[in-house]
Amino acid sequence: MVVSKKTELKEGDVLLKLEDVHMFFGKVCALSGVNLEIRKGEIHSVIGPNGAGKTVMMNIINGLYRPQRGEVFYKGEKINHLKPYKRSELGISRTFQKVEVFGGLSVLDNIRLGRHIHYRSGIFSGSCYLGKTKKEEIEHRKFIEEEIIDLLEIEHIRHKPTGMLPYGLQKRVELGRALAMEPELLILDEPLAGLNLEEVEDMARFILDINEEERWKVTCLLVEHDMGVVMDLSDRVLVLNFGNTITDDTPEAVQKNQDVVNAYLGEEDLYSTRR
Predict the structure, then answer these.
(1) How far is Cα 202 from Cα 145, in angstroms, rounded to an integer?
(2) How do residues 25-73 score in pLDDT, each as one tens digit?
(3) Helix H or strand E encompassing 15
(4) 234: which of 8, 40, 173, 187 lies 20 to 30 Å off by Cα?
(5) Which helix (H) or strand (E) is 19 found in, with range?
(6) pTM, to two decimals
(7) 16 within 8 A of 185, measured Cβ to Cβ
(8) Cβ-based neighbours of 96, under 8 Å, separated by 6 or more
(9) Which residue from 160, 168, 178 is spatially nearest to 107, judged by alpha carbons?
């Protein structure tokens, strides 16, 4: 059974804010006036049927899309104009709905790619691999091996080619690469998709640890279809339907919202937690 978060979240600073965001693809409206506030330290989930606009929202936050209308704020500063790599430098990281790993590289090398924004050595010292560059490389590798690989329990596969691993382990590697950036906001786009029950429970535990452990304390934006996990882990849940917001409230309130039931769940109670 997934361990439930279910803790009272105190009012905190708004880390990320979407204000009246609209996104169109030709005549198709993917998002219509969406508002969202994510407070530092919470797990804020986004749910809705396929085509509701969830991934479009993630891409807007990440900088892959720029909304035609509306504003995106991070720590109170408007970031609409910033490219994805600039948003990464600010502390926004993500995983993807479909695993995006480099199959020919080892697990360790895949995760190391996420440290690129923390390297400070120049091209000349880097080409010689001496002094500051060597020291920096040792420190980054130590962080990856002692913190991330240990957290995700992938010590036994760290030197294996990532493309040879089962899908569930590839998901962990992608999560590890996102964590290597040491983000303040981690966007998780369907991290449980394609996983079996045991893998789902492991991934849910990792997400909780990332969010709650003192070493990490990462704010999470979770897009997921597994309602049991969503309701167990989330502090708040935003529900989208055809690009429109139905509600943005606590898990308990969302479960009781008849508009959510009508638009997304049907009459059957699909919010029951995993047993």
Answers:
(1) 19
(2) 998 999 999 999 999 999 999 999 888 999 999 999 999 999 999 999 9
(3) strand 14-25
(4) 173
(5) strand 14-25
(6) 0.86
(7) yes
(8) 174, 189
(9) 160
H-only helix segments in 38-148: 54-62, 84-90, 107-112, 123-128, 132-143
What is the rounded CA–CA span in Å between residue 192 and residue 171? 9
Smallest CA-to-CA distance from 222 within 82, 104, 46, 20 is with 46
* Residues 6 or more apart in contact with residue 203 via CB below 8 angstroms: 171, 172, 175, 191, 192, 195
Q: For residue 48, what are the contacts with CB-CB under 8 A and spacing of at least 6?
A: 54, 239, 240, 241, 246, 264
* Alpha-carbon separation of residue 224 from 7, 49, 194, 265 (angstroms): 20, 10, 12, 14
The 10s digit of each residue's pLDDT in 226-258 is 999 999 999 999 999 999 999 999 999 999 999
In residues, how long is the chain?
A: 275
CATH number of 1-91+183-275: 3.40.50.300
